[in-house]
Design a protein that fits this description.
globular; 3 helices; binds FE2/S2 (inorganic) cluster; mainly alpha; 2 strands; Arc Repressor Mutant, subunit A
């Protein structure tokens, strides 16, 4: 089975990796996207927050289950249909 990659860059704008995000949620006490934005700067870069579709499922999974998923299933519900 593929191990999760903590060095995966989640927020390309601000170069924030998965380890930093998970740490902010697990040890930094972030329970909302806004708290993650404030603590890590992920999600508030010049692209307008395209990485939020990864931040949200990561956060939601942790809040629901108490651990992080192996694979991040991107939340595309906010994406516009063409
Ligand atoms: S990739 Fe995270 S704000 Fe742009």
């Amino acid at each position: 089975m593929q191990k999760k990659n903590l060095s995966e860059i989640i927020c390309r704008c601000n170069n924030i990796n998965r380890e930093t995000i998970e740490d902010a949620i697990k040890n930094g006490g972030c329970k909302t996207l806004n708290e993650i934005f404030d603590q890590t700067t992920a999600g508030v870069g010049p692209c307008g927050g395209s990485c939020r579709r990864k931040l949200k499922p990561l956060l939601d999974h942790y809040l629901a289950h108490g651990f992080f998923p192996e694979k991040i299933i991107e939340d595309l519900t906010g994406k516009q249909k063409k």
